[in-house]
Amino acid sequence: MRALKFLFLEDSPTDLELIQRELKKGGVEYIPLHAQDKEEYVKAIVEEKPDFIFSDFSLPNFDGLSALSLAKEKCPTTPFIFVSGTYGEDAAIQTLTRGATDYVLKDRLVKLVPALKRAIKEMEEHNALRRAEAEKYEIEEQLRQSQKVEAMGFLAGAMAHEINNPIMAIIDYAQMISKGDLDASKIQKISSKIKQEGERISEMVKDLLRFARQEKGVYEPVSVFNLIKKTRAITEQRLKMSLIQMDLSIDPALPFVLCKEGQILQVLLNLTNNAIDALNQRYPAFNEDKRISISAKREEIAGKGWVRIAIEDFGSGIPPEVGKSIFNTFFTTKGAEKGTGLGLSVSLGIVKEHGGFLSFESALNEYTRFFLDLPAV
Ligand SMILES: Nc1ncnc2c1ncn2[C@@H]1O[C@H](COP(=O)(O)OP(=O)(O)OP(=O)(O)O)[C@@H](O)[C@H]1O
Ligand SMILES: [Mg+2]
């Protein structure tokens, strides 16, 4: 471990010596920095970034409380210990409420090293906690990424299928032109169609790239209507193959939501795919009730606007004992090769980060309804 830098704000050379002698007696090793007034003090905390500050309470033209506020402003995590004369005891105690780490009286300097050790221990605990939090975030981020890659594969598959139509059209148009028996105005018309189809493809590719790139993403006002339409377009192929109907009921006056579009799309895709799975489980073949409805409406709760998106299926339903676990990471009832159990846990993480809520209600072999609530713009 590198040696810690201690900054002493102290105008009396005698007191400074007593303090440093006490530290030496306690076997504490450090690099000493010394300030006697405000100017030296500010320079030291800004340029030297000390690991600890020991401050006298009253100084000529400066005072310990101002030193404390400055420290809280410029280096809020650096422990700050008052070393004060007895006359300042009451005030010194009060400083604890202002964020001082501890105080030691100059005539009880034996308490200095224990106070320092306590502060070091606290600092280490705090750092360990921060590291653990950072690691947790890192792991969650990895899960989110791996789930996104999966969603992207799916998206790419759906898109390849979608892109095929305009490409076929473009090939047909090109063949018509290459025959060479069309007049100029006809060629004009056809080439503008080619342009249109090309633009459609370009839009789709841009969408996929945006989704792929959306690592951190940005919050933007997004139309829920468009998001739901995208969800339907992407899942269309799966819906068709499973003979599932999807109906949408979206309030035309729906407000926008502030969100990372790719992430909320990911949530909607997870919920829709789960609904498809549940329907296929209940009805392996065609059935009139094999349907999903997605609705979106505005709600007002405690004076604030929300958008509630409901995704409802009439599939297998969720048994109450399963319901307790569905948001857990890696929880799946679909078997290892079919489900990873990441869909809902990743979705919940995303929704929480957006300041929203994800909840559900279900009756076994009747229905499941997932509610996604997001703050309206
Ligand atoms: N609409 C639904 N109807 C019935 N059960 C559901 C529904 N949505 C989720 N579940 C249950 O919750 C579990 C967890 O869902 P989650 O989306 O997290 O994982 P998964 O779908 O099993 O796997 P994947 O990681 O591929 O999404 C599912 O295995 C299923 O048992
Ligand atoms: Mg799922």
Keywords:
alpha/beta; Rossmann fold; Heat Shock Protein 90; five-stranded parallel β-sheet; five-stranded mixed β-sheet; 10 helices; 14 strands; binds adenosine-5'-triphosphate; binds magnesium ion; transferase
The CATH superfamily of the largest domain turns out to be: Histidine kinase-like ATPase, C-terminal domain
Task: State the end-to-end distance.
Answer: 49 Å
Largest sheet: 5 strands, parallel
Assign the structural class, choosing from mainly alpha, mainly beta, alpha/beta, alpha+beta, or little secondary structure. alpha/beta
How large is the count of helical segments?
10
Query: Which CATH-level-2 architecture of the largest domain?
Result: 2-Layer Sandwich
Ligand catalogue: adenosine-5'-triphosphate, magnesium ion
Number of domains: 2
- Order the strands across the largest sheet as they lie in space: 2-1-3-6-7
Overall residue-averaged pLDDT value? 89
Strand content: 15-25%
Shape, per Cα inertia axes: elongated
Number of strands: 14
Q: Over the alpha carbons, how many angstroms does the gyration radius reach?
A: 32 Å
Poorly predicted residue ranges: none
Which series of helices and strands comes N to C?
EHEHEEEHEHEHHEHEEHEEHHEE
How much helix is in the residues? 40-55%
Named CATH topology of the largest domain = Heat Shock Protein 90
| Highest-level CATH class of the largest domain | Alpha Beta
